[in-house]
Amino acid sequence: MSRVYGAARRLYDLGQMIRIEHTVFALPFAFAGALLAGRSLGLNRGWPPWPTLGWIVVAMFGARSAAMAFNRIVDARLDAANPRTSARHIPAGTVSFRQAALFVIVAAALLVFAAARLNPLCLKLSPLALAWTLGYSYTKRFTAWSHLVLGIGIGAAPLGAWIAVTGSFAVTPILLSAAVALWIAGFDIIYALQDMEVDRRLGLHSIPARLGATRALQVARIMHAAMLGLLGLTGITANLGFWYYSGLIVSAALLAYEHAIVHPRDLSRVNTAFFTMNGWVSIGLFAFLALDGWFVR
Which pTM was predicted? Predict the structure, then answer.
């Protein structure tokens, strides 16, 4: 019984280490890419077959889990030196380097296996996806634009889902992925405000550390404005209708509120902006997109 409890506890700790709940940011956009791909093929209201959706979820879980666990390994020393992150699992000793490394290997293999189950193009692209998402962990050591590298890695979800369904590239998912990349990069800049002084002390690079809080927030606003523009173009290329654009307006309002509650001299509501608002943006926009499909003739 103690062995079962120990194994369950390790799995729980690993799940907490990779913040599995943060999948909510990218997974709805992956579903959006799959839904748009299905519509482009004339499927029933756009929904691909359930096995395809299932393997997309597995691939997303594998890619994100491998990237997050690898990041925790690479940043363990830096996390220990940062009061905000010193209690993370590896610095605190809750998860060992060996356990985390094994988890990375298993999660990466899961991505490759899921990609192979989808189609040949997904399988060919899976090493590139892994290289990009794992490589992100090193970028804060040499570029302030690490936020955008992260955004591109996560933003690939809609394009990956489109390829999983169609086996090809297209303009619509590229626009959607670009929008997601700017969205992720923008709110990652907001989140990085918490570590601005620590990053400077440790010699790490970020937009807040380089530009300061006020200008960093301006960059984030520009990224989110561009994101909304790209989402508008996505709607045009995919011939979307009233409900999608209603969702776009709601998303714009949520982003405006997100920026309104974070000030250069008051970062007390950064977590609300990061977790709550962006979760609603992701889930809400997908919900409106799905609703739009019910009115496609």
Answer: 0.94
